[in-house]
Amino acid sequence: MQPLAVDPAGQPSTPPEPGARQRAARVRLLAMDVDGTLTEGGLLIGADAEVAKAFSVRDGFGLTLLCRAGIELVLITGRQSAIVERRATELGIVRVHQSVKDKLAMLQHVCRECGIGLDEAAFIGDDWPDLPPMSACGLAAAPADAVEEVRRAAHWVAGTPAGKGAVRELAMFILDAQGRREDLLAQYRA
């Protein structure tokens, strides 16, 4: 495992693998696990069903920025949840694949469907089921609190944990690598 460094905000972070920026510059599609990546990984289950998941609004805005930059967004998760469908709808993510047993096969299918090579795809995940798509894509990413094996397999590891801004950090890394961040930010400056 790479040693932890500290970013300017004082957050622990793992330095990106050499070449991660070049990999991010080629990204045209970002596929994401949900539980433990877009959420903290906790499940609140009531008598009849899952009742809540906490999503970061900063992650959501980062995904909105990637969408504006023309990056295709995809959710690939092993669980089934109406909450995930609702959040995807709020963010305008139309490619939502739930109850997926083989995440690599699904990523390959989505890439073919979109006409995007696996080398132009990024995948962010947190646990062992995410390792196959991470190993096949152009940019593999992980939240700071992903399991050790996933952090080791990642080209880029966030300084923040899942559900707390890790996906936003990844979005900014991709936008910076593609030289798109300033153009998008200009829309919000007075």
What features would you highlight for this structure?
190 residues; alpha/beta; Rossmann fold; two-stranded antiparallel ribbon; 16% strand; disordered N terminus
Description:
The chain has 190 residues and is α/β, with parallel strands linked by helices. The protein has one domain (20-102, 118-186): HAD superfamily/HAD-like (Rossmann fold). It contains 8 helices and 10 strands. The chain has helices spanning 20-25, 57-68, 82-91, 103-114, 131-136, 148-153, 166-177, 181-186; strands spanning 5-6, 12-13, 29-32, 44-45, 50-52, 72-76, 95-97, 121-124, 139-142, 156-157. The strands form 3 sheets. It has a 6-stranded parallel sheet, with helices on both faces. Strands 1-2 form a two-stranded antiparallel ribbon. Strand 1 (5-6) and strand 2 form a beta hairpin. The chain is globular. The protein starts with a strand and ends with a helix. The relative contact order is 0.22.
Write the layout of secondary structure elements.
Blueprint: E1 5-6, E2 12-13, H1 20-25, E3 29-32, E4 44-45, E5 50-52, H2 57-68, E6 72-76, H3 82-91, E7 95-97, H4 103-114, E8 121-124, H5 131-136, E9 139-142, H6 148-153, E10 156-157, H7 166-177, H8 181-186
Parallel strand pairs: 3-6, 3-8, 6-7, 8-9, 9-10
Antiparallel strand pairs: 1-2, 4-5
Helix pairs in contact: 2-7
